Automatic annotation (TrEMBL):
A Pfam family matched in the record: Lipase_3
GO biological process, one term: lipid metabolic process
Origin: domain of life: Bacteria
Protein name as annotated: Fungal lipase-type domain-containing protein
Protein's organism: Corallococcus aberystwythensis
Limits of the Fungal lipase-type domain: 207-309
């Protein structure tokens, strides 16, 4: 049977980064997926009106109106070769660059399947016009891995076990050289953490990922495991992606039999990975296929910073009977991580909430970890930093150094963040940190900024915010310039975009004159943004426009 290995755990953390990157690529507007735009807060009236408008435009069913309507492109599978810029927080929270790394570059074929497990066609431009493919070949790949992305839902509860919000949940990746299939699940995303926690805990509303997280102590009795009790939030989320996941595994394997299958994930992803492991080892996932090869394949799960998924020791005993022995689940975590429910976390907001919810809902049932728990002693940061992938990586590197008596190089590119201020001074709005020594990172950032926000999407997002200004309670004509697409602000934005297009052409004449005109327009928009800063809806219109212009400015070296 497999044994826990820190080097493998470190490699699985890289797969977790890959899953986070795929999620960000699936966001229609990754630089502002939660409609934060300008300003943050626990409650934001203008933002609420925007969310209601998005639900209306999407035609959302009534039982999912409680969720933040994050727009995902579920008809275009992520591309491992592309990078993306993602903003997961609010206010001054840094932006994240997800750049293609060695794992991404080693994938020679990629595709995606939908919730029902059906192929998602990909339209590409070829020499003879547009072609429709069922997957993308990557001839420049450094390896021969085969990847298939799968979809799932989060946000389901005991009351509404089927009502969730769909997104890209992870990928199945087969390495023919190692004869190994890795199934990785992404972790949760939330925007404003305080608001997400409050809404999810009180009303099971807001961020669907956090609704799943906050339902971790509600029971789901699973019949095929002799009614063992699992976390309702995590099990329902896993069940939602079962069809898609099964199809993705078969696509990745492409008729081959692996020697090893590893399930992995960080945080929420680690919980879902445990559910998938249980379902393969003793349940229904790939039941007919796996039954024929059970004795040939090693199966295990590397759960990183993961919460427990089993409620009660009795349920743990039932599960062990079904999988035929001790679970091959290996938890690597910081001793100070409250999400893992570590005993070293004596006081924190999360532990207080867990205690309160547990005493009210399940006073006699305690969450229980499967398998082996491996605290990373080199992790020293307090929660919530203790939960972050960078801290886990630091702990794993320290463990490897002790086990192998060898050091590992620093990895500043794992989760690189940078400051991005659309209303900042000309040429100084994008500020990578001091660890950005590698020129390759800066080049990736420029490409990712250009592709992460387009003029069209910026215009649509700005219009969403402009649509709610009218109902703000302000004077009727207070923000007339942003009330419709014909307003002065949109005219200025159109002119600025036209200049950006001109400057993107290296053969354009009058470049200095165009640059001066662009600076003038941008400065005028910054003044309008600052003048409207007292009202989040109107200032957000300018923020979205400036965000696109700043990204284009930096990406195209327009300074």
């Amino acid at each position: 049977m497999p044994h826990p290995d820190a080097q493998t755990a470190l490699e699985m953390l890289e797969y977790c980064r890959f899953a986070y990157k795929a999620y960000a690529q699936g966001c229609v507007y990754p630089m502002d997926p939660f409609y934060e735009s300008h300003g943050a807060g626990m409650w934001q009236g203008a933002r609420d009106r925007v969310l209601a408008q998005v639900h209306k435009l999407l035609g959302s069913e009534a039982d999912i109106h409680k969720f933040d309507p994050i727009e995902y492109d579920l008809r275009t599978p992520p591309n491992p070769r592309n990078g993306v810029v993602y903003r997961g927080g609010t206010g001054a929270s840094p932006y994240i660059l997800f750049q293609p790394r060695e794992l991404d570059r080693s994938i020679s074929f990629s595709k995606g399947v939908d919730l029902e497990g059906e192929d998602i066609p990909v339209k590409v431009q070829g020499l003879f016009g547009e072609q429709t493919l069922l997957g993308l070949e990557h001839p420049e790949a450094t390896g021969s891995k085969r990847c298939c992305y799968f979809q799932g839902k989060t946000g389901m509860t005991q009351t509404h076990p089927k009502a969730g919000w769909a997104s890209w949940m992870g990928a199945a990746i087969y390495d023919p050289d190692l004869q190994r299939l890795v199934v990785v699940f992404r972790g949760s995303r939330s925007g404003s953490g305080g608001r997400a926690l409050g809404q999810a805990l009180v009303n099971s509303a807001g961020s669907p990922d956090w609704v799943t997280d906050m339902n971790h102590l509600k029971e789901a009795r699973v019949g095929r495991f002799s009614n063992a009790t699992l976390s309702a939030g995590f099990w329902y989320a896993y069940e939602s992606c079962q069809e898609s996941l099964a199809a993705a595994c078969l696509e990745a394997l492409h008729g081959r039999v692996p020697r090893e299958i590893i399930f992995t994930g960080h945080s929420l992803g680690g919980a879902l990975a445990q559910c998938a492991y249980l379902d393969l080892a003793g349940g229904e996932l790939l039941e007919k296929v796996y039954a024929k090869i059970r004795n040939q394949v090693r199966v295990c799960c590397y759960a990183l910073s993961a919460p427990p998924v089993v409620l009660g020791s009795k349920s743990k005993e039932k599960l062990e009977l079904h999988i035929g022995g001790a679970p091959q689940v290996f938890h690597h975590f910081s001793p100070y991580d409250a999400v893992h429910n570590s005993k070293k976390v004596n006081t924190s907001g999360v532990t207080a909430v867990n205690s309160l919810v547990g005493s009210v809902t399940h006073p006699l049932t305690s969450p229980t970890h499967l398998g082996l728990e491996i605290p990373l002693k080199d992790c020293t940061l307090a929660f919530p930093d203790a939960h972050e992938p960078e801290e886990v990586r630091r702990g794993l590197v320290g463990l490897i150094r002790k086990e192998a008596r060898m050091g590992l190089p620093a990895d500043p590119g794992f989760w690189p963040t940078f400051d991005f201020n659309p209303a900042g001074a000309w040429g100084m709005s994008v500020r990578p940190g001091g660890e950005w020594g590698a020129e390759a990172l800066a080049a990736h950032l420029k490409i990712a900024l250009i592709t992460s926000v387009t003029e069209e999407r910026a215009r649509l997002r700005a219009q969403l915010w402009a649509d709610v200004v009218k109902g703000s309670g302000r004077r009727k004509d207070a923000y007339a310039v942003v009330e419709d697409m014909d307003g002065d602000s949109f005219d200025a934005f159109a002119s600025a975009c036209g200049i950006v297009t001109e400057l993107s052409n290296p053969f354009t004449e009058n470049r200095k004159q165009n640059q001066l005109q662009l600076r003038t327009l941008r400065n005028e928009m910054i003044k309008s943004y600052q003048g409207a800063s007292g009202h989040k809806a109107s200032s957000s219109v300018y923020f979205v426009m400036l965000q696109y212009l700043t990204a284009a400015q930096y990406g195209l070296d327009i300074v």
